[in-house]
Amino acid sequence: MGRGRAAGIAATGSTVDVGEATTRYLLYGLLPSWFVPGLADWAMHRRTRIEDTAGAKESLIHSLMMAEVGVPIAFTLRYEVNPLLLSVQLAGAAAHEATALRDVRTAVHSAREVKPVEQHIHSFLEALPFGALSALMCLHADQVKRLLRGGGGDADAWRLVPRRRPLSPVYLAGIAGAVGTCVALPYGEELLRCLRAGRTKKQRKRRAGADPAHWQAV
User: Which pTM value belongs to this model?
Assistant: First the structure.
């Protein structure tokens, strides 16, 4: 940007509130976009027939990972950022990363093929929590310092404090609807599919043990 243009902007009083812009990005950009790789990952699991390979074990790991990310997000949408909430967010991000590693190991050690496209989707799902958390910590650097000092003697540092400026009920309802449609329904369907396939396999094994000649013929 040239000096003349910068001077013109300064003269007209045009300013950008970085904090407000970052908050809008987190609420209306990053958080809604999170559902896209989540759905894509579910589609890859379905395409590689997770119910016939890794089964319910991997599907349960997926549910755990969503809880590790979902609980801190839900708290952040309802409560003020303070040392307690930052601790919950940091713990959730660390647990999510450790569980993601276990998830990949489970898939690789099973008969399910983890294609390069799915691995690329995982890179988004792993990076987004850290991107969101780092932006939030920059917005609340004072609370980060307070966390490092053990709360700084603030009585509200270690309790959940409702937001002074609550988010719009319409926005919260929209996020809840998106979570139900893009997360709960598809991954719930995945888990049910895996559980049903597991029961079917057990029944076949029992029948095969009871009548080996019949099932060998089948």
Answer: 0.83
